[in-house]
Specification:
By secondary structure, this protein is of the alpha+beta class. The protein folds into 2 domains: 2-224, Jelly Rolls (Sandwich); 230-255. The chain is 15% helix and 30% strand. It has 2 helices and 15 strands.
C-alpha cells in the first residue's frame, strides 16, 4: 500500500513541468526551482513540490514545510528523506550519490543570448549535515565544475551559496561552481540529487564572477539584476522630483 501511494505521488509530480520560456539577458538569469521542464531518473528519489497549500505527508520528510519563507512561496525537495543525521545509514544509489546525473535529474530549457562562463548560485534550505549537497550540469554533460555544490552556513533558513566541496574544504570553496556556455541558443541546465532531503528554491546563472545575491532583488520574479545605468536613471528622476517639489513649495509660499 505504501509503495502504491509513493507511485501515485510520483506520477502527480510530473505535471509540474512548465512551458515557460526562460531567457538569459546580459549574462544573467534567475529561475525558480519549480519552473523545471522535465524530471528524469526519479525511480528511487523524486523532486516534490511544496507550497502553502501542498505538503506531501506520505513521504518521510522530518523537517516539514518551509514554503512560507521561500521565493514565490514554493520550492522543491528531493524525497524520501531517509538520511537525516550522520549516524543514519548511507546507502549509495539510494539516499546519496557522488555521481552527478544519476538520480532525480531536473532540466531547465534556457535560451542564451550571451556565451561565456556562468557561475551558479543556488538558494537552499538545510537543517543538518546530510541534506546540503547537489550537482549541476548542462546538456547532459556533468563537468567537474558542477559537482558537489555544498552548504554549511545558514542552517534552518533559505541560504544562497556557490561553493564546491573539495578534499581540502568539506564546506566548499567559492568560484569553483560554473558552467561554460559555448554557443548561443537553447541549452538545458540540469540539477541532480547528491543527498536526499535537499530543498531547492531558486538558482542564478551569471557571468559576473564577483556577483553576490545581495546585489539583486531575490524575491521579485526572475530577479533581474539592476544595472548601474538603471540605478543612475532612478537617481536622476529622484533629483528631478525633489527640484519640482522645492519649486512648487516656493511658488506656493509667495502666492
Amino acid at each position: 500500500m505504501k509503495k502504491l501511494l509513493f507511485l501515485l505521488l510520483i506520477c502527480g509530480c510530473q505535471s509540474l513541468s512548465t512551458n515557460q520560456k526562460l531567457v538569459e539577458k546580459d549574462g544573467f538569469i534567475g529561475v525558480e526551482a519549480e519552473d523545471f521542464n522535465d524530471q528524469q531518473k526519479d525511480e528511487v528519489r523524486n523532486w516534490v513540490r511544496f507550497d502553502m497549500t501542498q505538503s506531501p505527508e506520505l513521504l518521510p520528510d522530518p523537517d516539514g514545510n518551509h514554503a512560507e519563507t521561500a521565493s514565490n512561496k514554493a520550492y522543491l525537495e528531493v524525497l524520501p528523506d531517509t538520511r537525516v543525521t550522520h549516524s543514519d545509514t548511507l546507502t549509495n544509489g539510494i539516499n546519496f550519490t557522488n555521481e552527478p546525473g544519476e538520480m532525480a535529474v531536473l532540466s531547465y530549457k534556457i535560451n542564451f543570448n550571451t556565451t561565456g562562463r556562468y557561475y551558479v548560485w543556488v538558494k537552499a534550505f538545510s537543517t543538518g549535515s546530510e541534506d546540503n549537497g547537489i550537482h549541476v550540469g548542462i546538456d547532459n554533460q556533468w563537468p567537474e565544475s558542477g559537482k558537489r555544490m555544498q552548504w554549511c552556513e545558514g542552517k534552518e533558513q533559505w541560504t544562497w551559496a556557490s561553493k564546491q566541496r573539495t578534499d581540502a574544504n568539506h564546506c566548499g570553496e567559492p568560484f569553483l561552481i560554473f558552467l561554460d556556455v559555448e554557443t548561443k541558443g537553447e541549452h538545458i541546465i540540469q540539477f541532480s540529487m547528491r543527498e536526499d532531503g535537499f530543498e531547492f528554491d531558486k538558482f542564478i546563472l551569471t557571468t559576473d564572477k564577483d556577483f553576490i545575491p545581495e546585489e539583486l532583488k531575490v524575491d521579485s520574479g526572475f530577479g533581474e539584476k539592476a544595472s548601474p545605468q538603471s540605478q543612475q536613471i532612478d537617481e536622476t528622476k529622484m533629483l528631478e522630483a525633489l527640484e519640482y517639489l522645492k519649486s512648487k513649495s516656493f511658488q506656493d509660499g509667495i502666492g
